[in-house]
Amino acid sequence: MKPNIFFTADHHFGLPNIIKFSERPFESMEQMNEEMIRRWNDKIGVNDTVYHLGDISLGKPDFTKEVLDQLNGKIHLIKGNHEGAALTHTKRFEWIRDYHELRVEEPDNSNGKQKIILFHYAMRTWNGSHRGTWQLYGHSHGTLPDDEMSLSFDVGVDCHDFCPISYEEVKEIMKKKKWTPPFAPRNNED
């Protein structure tokens, strides 16, 4: 049985301006924070694995600690461009990195694994992009058009009903992409 793995980004807990900037459907920062914590915990259990791809909080360190203490899961943090407060609470995270290459057990793949590149920013190409490796990112708050020819997409909360997204949900999205291996044998139509 595969572990419960989730991905997310760009909560910006504690930032009132994000409601206007990203046109979030919340009346106040307090309502936004409470609702995103509730949605997180409704989906994620205490022992689930979460990869947060940056910009978890823009609140002060004490506020950020209060939020982090309420969130379920074993959180791995990929640093975004707004991590000042989160970095004052490093013990809450399993690890903190700028970039990570994750390998997930995947019996549907010929090699039994799915490789996933985790980075705060979208990339046009990445390690293994021509071999079916996925790239997950945040930062753009849903403003980048999805490229159906690329095995990458935005896992930020603004794109997924203000919730983390599971590995299985990511897999279903990737199956709908029109990506084909660039070096695959092609039928010649001579």
Task: Give a description of the structure.
The chain is of the alpha/beta class and 190 residues long. The chain has a single domain, classed as Purple Acid Phosphatase, chain A, domain 2, CATH 3.60.21. The protein has helices at 17-21, 29-43, 61-70, 167-175, and strands at residues 5-8, 49-52, 74-78, 93-97, 99-105, 113-119, 134-137, 152-154, 165-166. A five-stranded mixed β-sheet has the order 4-3-2-1-9. A four-stranded mixed β-sheet has the order 5-6-7-8, with no helix packed on it. α3 (61-70) links the parallel β2 (49-52) and β3. The longest helix is centred in the first third of the chain and has 15 residues, at 29-43.
Helical content (DSSP H or I, runs of 4+):
10-25%
Order of helices and strands: EHHEHEEEEEEEH
Provide the spatial order of strands within the biggest beta sheet. 4-3-2-1-9
Distance between the termini: 47 Å
**How would you classify the helix and strand content by structural class?**
alpha/beta
- Give the integer mean of the pLDDT values: 93
Number of domains: 1
Q: CATH superfamily membership, which one?
A: Metallo-dependent phosphatases
Q: In terms of quaternary structure, what is this? A: single chain
Query: DSSP strand (E) fraction?
Result: 15-25%
| Separate helix tally | 4
- Poorly predicted residue ranges: none
**Main sheet, how many strands, which sense, barrel?**
5 strands, mixed
Protein name: Phosphoesterase
Organism: Chryseobacterium soli
